[in-house]
Amino acid sequence: MPHDHPHDNGVSASGHPYRTDNDGALSYWQCMEIAVRELLVEKGVTTSSEIARQIEAMDARSPSDGAKVVARAWTDPDFRRDLLADASEATRKMGFDIGPMKLIAVENTPQLHNIIVCTLCSCYPRNLLGLPPDWYKTRAYRSRTVREPRSVLAEFGVLLPPDVEVRVHDSTADMRYIVIPARPEGTEHMDADALAALVTRDSMIGTGLPLDAAAF
């Protein structure tokens, strides 16, 4: 079978973009993960199949889970109150596995816009939003957001009036945030399922806004 060799333009003979193989030496942390995992299996604490199922469950998580939380907050005043008081407990009652971390919900208003960052690494509410976007993990986003949040928001297309306060929240290893964006105008006739379709991943990070209801 012929092999696809990369050309100078980074494209293989098959027309697919060329990507180098990920066959470098394992890092210290990768070796540590393998050692701990194999030890847990050997000691009977867990099994390989249980680990595989957990990985599959984590990979299946997506921003649609967080969107359901936001849509319910928009339509259920009692749930919104509980969510803002204790987001971990409120989302657990919806059936979402938050784990031991503390989840905090912050709400956007006409006077306040929230944005989330993790300055130390890339802590992110994966339980509700799935895997973080690549840009969330970059040093540029992590450092610039705390120094010049309005400039960062403008680069994402979010232009806020000068009188709107921008508040930056820094996630930690045991504390995560989810932004409850402001409900779009003209959505009074929409139910929770329809509203959830308007909620974007970026709007729950604070770097975006919900979709315009007129598009649906």
Notes on the structure:
The protein has 216 residues and is α/β, with parallel strands linked by helices. The chain folds into two domains: 28-59, no CATH class; 62-215, Alpha-Beta Complex (Nitrile Hydratase, Chain A), CATH 3.90.330.10. It has helices at 28-42, 48-60, 63-75, 77-85, 87-93, 126-129, 139-147, 149-155, 192-196, 201-205; strands spanning 102-107, 112-117, 165-170, 175-180. The strands form two sheets. It has a two-stranded parallel ribbon. The protein has a two-stranded parallel sheet with strand order 2-3. The radius of gyration is 21 Å and the shape is globular. The N and C termini lie far apart (48 Å).
Set out the fold topology:
Layout: H1 28-42, H2 48-60, H3 63-75, H4 77-85, H5 87-93, E1 102-107, E2 112-117, H6 126-129, H7 139-147, H8 149-155, E3 165-170, E4 175-180, H9 192-196, H10 201-205
Parallel strand pairs: 1-4, 2-3
Secondary-structure element string: HHHHHEEHHHEEHH
Question: Which class of the largest domain in CATH terms?
Answer: Alpha Beta
- What is the name of the CATH topology of the largest domain? Nitrile Hydratase, Chain A
Please list the strands of the largest sheet in the order they lie side by side: 1-4
CATH architecture of the largest domain: Alpha-Beta Complex
**Helix and strand composition category:** alpha/beta
- The whole-number mean of residue pLDDT values reads 89
Unreliable spans are 1-7
Q: What is the total number of structural domains?
A: 2
Q: What's the alpha carbon Rg, rounded to whole Å?
A: 21 Å
* Helical run tally: 10
The biggest beta sheet reads: 2 strands, parallel
Globally, the shape reads globular
> What portion of residues belong to β-strands?
5-15%
Roughly how much helix do the residues carry, as a percent range? 40-55%
CATH homologous superfamily assignment of the largest domain: Nitrile hydratase alpha /Thiocyanate hydrolase gamma
Number of strands: 4
Q: What is the terminal-to-terminal distance?
A: 48 Å
